# Entry
Amino acid sequence: MLIVERSKPKRNFVQIPNQTVFDERLSRLARQVLSELIARPPGWQATADSMADDGKKHRGPRAESRRALRAAFAELEECGYMVRTRSRIPKGQPNGGGFMTTLTVYDVPQTGQNEDGRNGGVGRWVDS
# Structure
């Protein structure tokens, strides 16, 4: 028997829809990564590699590998929780004329298709 005891925090907590928490299309690692990303403040930046480096720094050999975290990011993108956009960096700025990739994270899957055919659009649940 499992007994669940919940606290009732008044600050420093995150709310995630149950449909997201129990989305069986995602591995447990992908759901945990999503939870951590959603809990961060707006504008916070990370990559799968930086999260792996941070984990290794704090947990050593018990940390998730770069490969595992990259796979979790790919799952999130495939299921619509993470949307990739690519834009040109204006000339005159560092790396001007090159491209920048931005990953936007959502707490529910995004539906529709972007110009490049990837998931995107408004926040609506996608039935699997």
User: Anything to note?
Assistant: The mean pLDDT is 87. The two ends are 31 Å apart (CA to CA).
